[in-house]
Amino acid sequence: xxxxxxxxxxxxxxxxxxxxxxxxxxxxxxxxxxxxxxxxxxxxxxxxxxxxxxxxxxxxxxxxxxxxxxxxxxxxxxxxxxxxxxxxxxxxxxxxxxxxxxxxxxxxxxxxxxxxxxxxxxxxxxxxxxxxxxxxxxxxxxxxxxxxxxxxxxxxxxxxxxxxxxxxxxxxxxxxxxxxxxxxxxxxxxxxxxxxxxxxxxxxxxxxxxxxxxxxxxxxxxxxxxxxxxxxxxxxxxxxxxxxxxxxxxxxxxxxxxxxxxxxxxxxxxxxxxxxxxxxxxxxxxxxxxxxxxxxxxxxxxxxxxxxxxxxxxxxxxxxxxxxxxx
Length: 327
Known about the structure:
Belongs to the D-alanine--D-alanine ligase family. The protein is an alpha+beta fold. It has helices at 17-30, 92-99, 109-116, 118-126, 146-153, 179-187, 232-236, 250-266, 300-307, 312-325, and strands at residues 4-11, 36-44, 47-50, 58-59, 67-69, 72-74, 78-81, 135-139, 157-161, 170-173, 192-197, 202-211, 214-217, 221-225, 240-243, 272-280, 283-290. It folds into three domains: 4-106, Rossmann fold; 114-130 and 200-325, ATP-grasp fold, B domain (D-amino Acid Aminotransferase, Chain A, domain 1), CATH 3.30.470; 135-197, 2-Layer Sandwich (Dna Ligase, domain 1). Strands 12, 13, 14, 15, 16 and 17 form a six-stranded antiparallel β-sheet that branches. It has a five-stranded mixed β-sheet with strand order 4-3-2-1-7, with helices on one face. A hairpin with an 8-residue loop joins strand 9 (157-161) and strand 10 (170-173).
């Protein structure tokens, strides 16, 4: 059986590019070389290039998403998408590859755009009875009615860039006078903001995958941040404990896993996903879902897969096969 040619996309145009590079490198390292010929592809603002260690950067031909190596044109059987943020998590890469009829491992373009937009995603899920925080929406240029905002969401509250990840553009606000600075911080990342009420409780993360043809929730991870919330430092600089399995009851574990699977099904997701919840008054409240979650050694999905007894080569192989079978 001939080997499949796989492009592993990493980088992106957002503040998350460096984190995505770590995820992409993890995938490249763990794909079975007896099954796959792997080409790392960096998608960056200054160009798209194959960054194969044995060669100088090779430009990608965007007309058909190919590279030319030693005079030979190489096309890809499948794309493993590890881009965090735009253009890999917001639907743009998915739409582009769809037009070229190249399978890719994440969800389809519309679902990617929907889940990347926190406000729209929450609005859809609420219609299905998924519990969330109380929220307030602001666009850049809108009049800021501080009294109305605080009246609706209370204090403390979270101010978040609507379309960003890895906690970029997120602030926890305790006092009215700090709201303006938090809004300015979020507007650095996006021109839309979501302000959410603070939910007191245990924060957990649940990976959901289609594994061997069945939608399956992975073991639950409890998030214990040393900082005020699960911010960039907590996620990537060791300022948190990520405890898998979470220190919650069997009933709570079952409840949040089923809710995460519901989110996966409602939003028609594919590939590797990770949903965040907080147990507030004993019930899981949805925060957000990541459709190209972190896959670096420090990331949550690899931790959960290990506890579930799924090796990274097996996990990544399953995702590629699912993508090819959907073609």
